[in-house]
């Protein structure tokens, strides 16, 4: 067998002893290195301590490749958690890596929480798997040759994004292979399947990390030919004829507790232009339909639309409103359980279109509970978006903010995928490929978090499905941008 060198973050003896013992006894394992800021008080027999800064930055990656001599493969454990290899797990990593010629291999695994095993499947890697928080699990298995060549080749020096930069580079030139088998167990102190915090990347304390991740993905996009310079198509906002300046679109299904509040939020808007509201009622079976009809008798500018089709997701409902003859010049989003923060939202949105000459505007929101009390992290303003690089960084993150508004002729050309998750992200990527996106950084929207949210308390299977879909959107967009750039260059 090819020798494997193993790199493990330094831990307390009780968390590492069993794993190190298994590795030491395996005939395919060559050397075992403990990585950390300070050498553990109790040394581990058969291990070599290597000083690092405790992060997987560029320095740590260079340190690892200096210790690859004599190995065909490198196993890197990225988290400080006890690992228990499964039956013939190391042999399986080796055989798949050899059979596929992969630059990097990872696998499904179990989480051990409170003495109970929980399955933790991960998802397949795509060219669009550009998120820096992509879940590989804590065990990564590299070809030593590929890892060494990549680390020596990559440009840029990073305190936090070294591993991220390297795996993006590996993924652009070598197979990154998932083994859909539970090859090991990671012992964890927290609740199983709790999922990541959707708003971790917005924590101001992590701004330095996020800026590094953005720099890393920007370098990657430049290398693969998908980077977009800050130049945009002009938007002829005044040329199309519309009877109504702005239309609020609310897709709804069974929201009897919140739909009246959402409608009232729209009707309280004060604007110098005409606006209307299209509520697309996707065949609700509770009192939602009745509540909308009652509101329609009160408000002349409310259009209650019940589609003939019964195969529509949120995106499909948006398409119904968008192609309705009453849809205005600008189509403005409101979810059926959310509210506008004040009476000026529509005027702010429309003014931003004309001021910034953009095809889409994205606002900021305040996160609340059902009763509209602010909850952490409070205001979500996505200030990581910049005019120069926002549409490149958009390929790294999972969302761009709310509320969203669109220049209707452009959105009619793009069309919205008929799904109920990620449809907004899909159109934002497609629009940003050609057009400027305007931003409002003050909170203009109240986003309720409650038990009926579509992304509340997701289990791992649903979360993986969502992540796979958004990775596919990124893969499509990456390909489109590369093709567009090649066409511009005449290649």
Protein architecture, described:
With 491 residues, the chain is of the alpha/beta class. It has two domains: 4-224, Spore Coat Polysaccharide Biosynthesis Protein SpsA, Chain A, CATH 3.90.550; 246-457, Spore Coat Polysaccharide Biosynthesis Protein SpsA, Chain A (Alpha-Beta Complex). The protein has helices at residues 13-25, 58-65, 89-100, 144-153, 162-173, 207-224, 259-267, 288-298, 314-322, 345-356, 390-393, 408-414, 423-432, 460-489; strands spanning 4-9, 29-36, 47-51, 73-77, 83-85, 104-113, 116-120, 139-143, 176-187, 246-252, 275-281, 302-305, 330-333, 339-340, 360-368, 374-380, 404-407, 437-448. Strands 1, 2, 3, 4, 5, 6, 7, 8 and 9 form a nine-stranded mixed beta sheet that branches. Helix 2 (58-65) packs across helix 4, helix 5 packs parallel to helix 6 and helix 13 (423-432) packs parallel to helix 14 (460-489). The longest helix has 30 residues, at 460-489. It is elongated, with a radius of gyration of 25 Å.
Secondary structure: elements and pairs:
Blueprint: E1 4-9, H1 13-25, E2 29-36, E3 47-51, H2 58-65, E4 73-77, E5 83-85, H3 89-100, E6 104-113, E7 116-120, E8 139-143, H4 144-153, H5 162-173, E9 176-187, H6 207-224, E10 246-252, H7 259-267, E11 275-281, H8 288-298, E12 302-305, H9 314-322, E13 330-333, E14 339-340, H10 345-356, E15 360-368, E16 374-380, H11 390-393, E17 404-407, H12 408-414, H13 423-432, E18 437-448, H14 460-489
Parallel strand pairs: 1-2, 1-4, 2-3, 6-9, 10-11, 10-13, 11-12, 15-18
Antiparallel strand pairs: 4-8, 5-9, 6-7, 6-8, 13-17, 14-18, 15-16, 15-17
